[in-house]
Design a protein that fits this description.
It comes from Paraburkholderia tropica. By secondary structure, this protein is an alpha+beta fold. It has one domain: paralog of FGE (formylglycine-generating enzyme) (Alpha-Beta Complex), CATH 3.90.1580.10. It is built from 7 helices and 13 strands. It has a 4-stranded mixed β-sheet. A 3-stranded antiparallel β-sheet has the order 1-4-13, with no helix packed on it. A hairpin with a 3-residue loop joins strand 7 and strand 8. It is globular. The termini are far apart. The N terminus is likely disordered.
Length: 347
């Protein structure tokens, strides 16, 4: 069965059948990519609210081990894309793809990790240079009536240190994903550690964790039906019922890991990849944060982001799935986009 969507409302109706599936019903066959190179390594003790709240944001042996906070995947074949989602997710050909082995962060790069990078290098992010960034807020009725995408605003002074603009800060929030960083910022951090950003294929291989069934296109839920990732429940963008426990960004690792021991591959924050966006573009204004950027600002290369965020909902985005993909200008920082890094095996 192939679904062809024309808008957010269509997406909500068409995905309803697929959402009857639960991530909890996945078979355990996907564990094979998590290989013996992980034996004896200190993995993050995360996966519950209590554990993520207590986590400081720095992996064990941070800066002592060049692979601190990472797991190794031996690589292999997988189906790249989905026939059940949006047109821009359709597999090319039969969809069969292969990736080589690589290490990947267990969780999104945290504010604590990015702060350590900035302290060591003096790095200045693009949002700091540009004087602001795209920030989400719950709009009023008046704002909704006045303009499209009323939930996005360009906020002068918004940066990774001041996510809501001047007066806000990240004190005591080192365990949250760092956001308001651009592709260049993410690459600078990755290169500091001798790493890179994942390709779209590497990211999706890690996100699918060895699975190929319809559960990959279902709303993430546990065995009791509770949302098993941080995405929007309720009516977007005015009412988030927070059934998943979080109305905004959550600390990393509050939800169970996938079968490759990776946290938050779905929801919480979109993640940068190193691939430029190509292929069909979904015409339902899913993000389009560039629309609120200052007039006259040049448009940079559109890059692929993966995994959805806390803003994806049944009635709007429906992109909290491993095959989901969206575009974001490489030099435009936004409050719902973070990243994780990879270290590839020698050729």
């Amino acid at each position: 069965m192939r679904f062809w969507l024309t808008g957010a409302a269509g997406g909500a109706a068409i995905f309803a059948a697929a959402f009857a599936w639960s991530y909890a019903s996945q078979a355990s066959a996907g564990a094979g990519g998590f290989d013996a190179l992980n034996t004896g390594r200190p993995l993050a003790a995360l996966g519950s609210e209590r554990q993520c709240e207590r986590y400081g944001g720095l992996p064990a042996r941070w800066r002592d081990d060049p692979k601190a906070g990472m797991v190794h995947l031996h690589g292999g074949a997988f189906v790249f894309g989905s026939t059940r989602g949006y047109p821009d997710e359709r597999p090319a050909g039969d969809g069969n793809a292969r990736v080589s082995g690589f290490w990947i962060d267990q969780h999104d790069v945290t504010i604590a990790q990015f702060a350590a990078f900035v302290a060591a290098t003096g790095y200045v992010t693009e949002a700091e240079k540009q004087g602001g960034a795209a920030v989400f807020h719950v709009p009023t009725r008046e704002e909704m009536n006045a303009r499209d995408l009323a939930w996005w605003s360009w906020v002068n002074g918004a940066t990774w240190r001041h996510p809501q603009g001047p007066g806000s800060n990240v004190d005591g929030k080192g365990n949250l994903p760092v956001t308001l960083v651009t592709l260049h910022d993410a690459l600078a951090y990755a290169h500091w550690l001798g790493r890179d950003l994942p390709t779209e294929a590497e990211w999706e291989y890690a996100g699918k964790a060895g699975h190929q069934d319809a559960s990959l296109d279902a709303a993430p839920a546990d065995a009791n039906g509770k949302p098993a990732a941080n995405y929007w429940q309720g009516v977007f963008p005015v009412l988030n019922t927070a059934e998943d426990g979080h109305a905004g960004l959550a600390p990393v690792g509050c939800y169970a890991a996938n079968d490759f021991r990776l946290y938050d591959m779905i929801g919480n924050a979109w993640e940068w990849t190193r691939d430029a966006y190509s292929g069909p573009h979904q015409s339902h204004t899913n993000g389009d944060t560039f629309a609120v950027a200052p007039a006259g600002r040049r448009h940079d290369t559109a890059m692929v982001i993966k995994g959805g965020s806390y803003l994806c909902s049944r009635d709007y985005c429906v992109r909290y799935r491993a095959s989901s993909r969206e575009q974001q200008e490489a030099d435009l920082a936004a409050s719902h986009i973070g990243f994780r890094t990879v270290l590839r095996d020698p050729a």
